[in-house]
Every structure is written in C-alpha cells, then in structure tokens.
Amino acid sequence: MRYVSTRGNAPALDFAGVTLAGLASDGGLYVPELWPTLSPDEIGALRGLSYVDTAVAVMAPFVEGTLTREELRGLCDAAYGAFSHDAVTPLVQLDHDQWLLELFHGPTLAFKDVALQLLGQLFERFLKGSDQHLTIVGATSGDTGSAAIDAVAGREGVDIFMLHPEGRVSDVQRRQMTTVGAPNVHNIAIRGDFDTAQALVKAMFNDASFAGRFRLSAVNSINWARLMAQVVYYFYAAVRLGAPAKPVAFSVPTGNFGDVFAGYVAAKMGLPVAKLVVATNVNDILARALANGDYSSRAVVPTPTPSMDIQVSSNFERLMFDLGGRDGAALAGQMRSFEDARAIRLTNAQTQGAAGLFVGERVDTDEMALAMRHAHERSGQVIDPHTAIALAAAHRHAEEGVPMVTLATAHPAKFGDAVERATGVRPSLPPRVGDLFDREERFVTLDATYEAVSDYVAQHAVPRG
C-alpha cells in the first residue's frame, strides 16, 4: 500500500512513512493511493469476531508491505488490552432502531483513545532500533491531547508538544493533559482558539527551516494511521446490526471531520452505510458546506461542546480531494484560496459526490440539552454534550428499519457541569481517574504567535542527529 498527498506534490510513502510524517511535505494530507475493498462475504465473516480480530481484518490492507498480520495483531493486543470494556467499543440500544456506540472505554475516556493507543504502539515499533528522535507537535480542542499524551508518555525516542486553547477545554480535559508528569510531555496553553492552535501546528510543519531541524510528526487526525484505526469500529458496529445484509446509518459529532471521514472510508471499502449524519454545533461550517457548498469560516463561538468549536476542519480536505477526482493540483489551488479568503465554494463534483452519503445537521445548545434529557429519561443513558449533538441530529434522520448508530465520543464525566445542568445528574469519574483533581498541573501559557510557540518547541525538542 502506497499513500499520496491530497495536494499532489509530495513523494508517495509507505505506511511507516506516513505514520512518522503525519503531514505531507507539500502541506497536504496523505490518503491511500487506492481504496481497498472487502467483499460482502468478507464483511459477513467479521460477525462475532473480537474487536482485535476485526481490527486486524479491516486494517491489514492499509499496512500491507510494512507490517504482517501477526505484527499488527500484537500491536492491537497491546493497544486495546487496557480498555475497561472487553468489547472495546460496545453498542447500547436506545430504542427499536437507535443505538449508541460507546467509544470512551479507553484510558482517557474519549474516542481518541481507540486510535491513539494504537498510534503510540506504531511510533514505538517504527522507531525501535533506530537513532531517530520524534518530535510530535499537535493541537487539541479537548480530547486528542490527553489521549495522545497517554499514548506516548514516557516512551523513548519521542517528545510531545500539545497546544490547547486557554480556557476553552473542560477542567477534566485540561487536567488529563497537564497532570502527566513524564519528562517527554510538554503542554502549551495558547491565548487563542483551536483553529489558531491548529494553524500554528501546520505552520511549523510547513516551515522548511524549522521542520528541517527536527523530525516532526503529528497525532492529530491529519495523521493517516489515526483515521485508519477509527475505520474499524464502523465495521464492528455494523456487522452486529445486520451488515452486509442491511445498511446501517451513523450520526457523528463532528469538529475536525476525522471521525466521520473514517465512516466514509468504511463505505469506500464496501460497508453498506445508509448515511453519515455530520452533526455540528452552532460552529456549522461543515453543515453549510454539505448543504449548499458554502465552505466559509466564521468566528468561533464558545459552546458547551468545546471539541466541536472549530471553523476549519482539516480532514475535510481529504473528502474534497477524493470527490474532486483526486486532482492534487486543483485541490491545492482550492486550499490556497480558502487560506487566503477563508471562504470558497465547493465544486459541483464535490457537492454532488457528498450528497449521496453525507447529510449535515446544525444543533444548537437548547436542542443538545433536550437530547441529553431524552436519553436519560427515556433510555436511562447519561451522555456527554457532544454525543447529545449527534443524537439530536440522529433523531431527525431516523428511518424505519434502518439502524441508526450515534457515536458516543466521550464519557459524560468529562463534561460534568453541562450534564448536570441538562439532566440533574452529576456523573462520576471512573475510579481509574478518580484522583485527577488531586494531581499537580504542569503547563506553560504562550501568546498565539508563531514566534512564541516555535521558539518554545525549539528550546525543548531534540534536534535531528
């Protein structure tokens, strides 16, 4: 398997290469040269398999030529062995056709663990025996940071620098990052929003002088390996609900478009996905883009769903590339226009290609709270605000006889204040993180400028040998 850049001007790489690189050298994102496919019989054979066995079957084509199935199985065993539920991503029934897919049973209580626990294993595997030192630079709107830090804390040959927007993540999310005392972990609070943090990270990758001094890599969903790992739970859920004999729909709380793009990959691989509901909060750039081709950035509005307070969704570029005929030069021109004007119109091919599978839905804070109350009162389920956004959108697209799976992306205790306001119930942190508020925090606060952040990274990172 080879991987190409969405902007068409970076060398094709193998799986190890794209995992360690993260962002392509031309500023694009890596995608497989061809989408692998599974036949209906191969998909049906996944029914009843463990999560690890499912993961090996789904991901094997993406790592071909780099890892054997046995090596991949060992990495998956290590990644998912510490999850608190044996099913890793269990399904919970809400009513006749509505389901929750619980993705928060990993060590940091969020869906990012499913991918990042594996990514940590992959980094260690690909660096083993070399003298390379990896400098991971990432931005988080809440959950990526803690999951990435947990995955690489204390590992040899790796330093991680994680940017988060000051005051715009929950207390639990922040403390899960800032209370990790490993010397290779560096937390940076920036005086700005997530989009600014993400832009600073991309700027470091695209600065040839800076990037040439360090071996940079990414843990955000710009890293292909992270998206690959997320494809697995779409298959795992769908075969338990009747696939491939019947289609299954998914509603996904969406900020950076990575999680829902993994659903698109599953569909490209042959999984019968009825629809992908792209559920946004009032920061609705994706809902507008899918509805009428209006991909225009506006000011970020802080909400009780901070992981979705995003107006520039990095992974949407991957979809634009694939639907636009995989024309890297054309896509690079589109992205330059967006970076200059913060607004573009999608092409007819892009809008028409998305229309058959994707539907965008904007859910406001009142509708979010109603969904939280509904889940608690009608189904006995306490859900976090992000999941509630997706559940509200799922209710709008319920279709008789078609299972609708809402991705439950975070444990409700990560957003205890919002949950309590909506339901009257204060969710407790699981015992494994119950002492979180007794731990000492360690982070720096910097201005949201390239000079401030890149200088800090340069002072604490290990240069190339």
UniProtKB/TrEMBL annotation:
- Cite the Threonine synthase N-terminal domain residue spans from the record: 2-80
Q: Where is the Tryptophan synthase beta chain-like PALP domain?
A: 87-324
Q: Which UniProt keywords apply?
A: Amino-acid biosynthesis, Lyase, Pyridoxal phosphate, Threonine biosynthesis
Q: Kindly give the Pfam families that the UniProt entry links to this protein.
A: PALP, THR4_C, Thr_synth_N
- Which GO terms fall under molecular function for this chain's record? pyridoxal phosphate binding; threonine synthase activity
Pathway per the UniProt entry = Amino-acid biosynthesis; L-threonine biosynthesis; L-threonine from L-aspartate: step 5/5
Q: Which reaction does it catalyse?
A: O-phospho-L-homoserine + H2O = L-threonine + phosphate
Name the cofactor(s). pyridoxal 5'-phosphate
Q: Which residues, renumbered to this chain, carry the PTM N6-(pyridoxal phosphate)lysine?
A: K112
Q: What is its EC number?
A: 4.2.3.1
**GO-annotated biological processes:** threonine biosynthetic process
**Which chain regions cross the lipid bilayer?**
none
**Family per UniProt?**
Belongs to the threonine synthase family.
> What's the protein name?
Threonine synthase
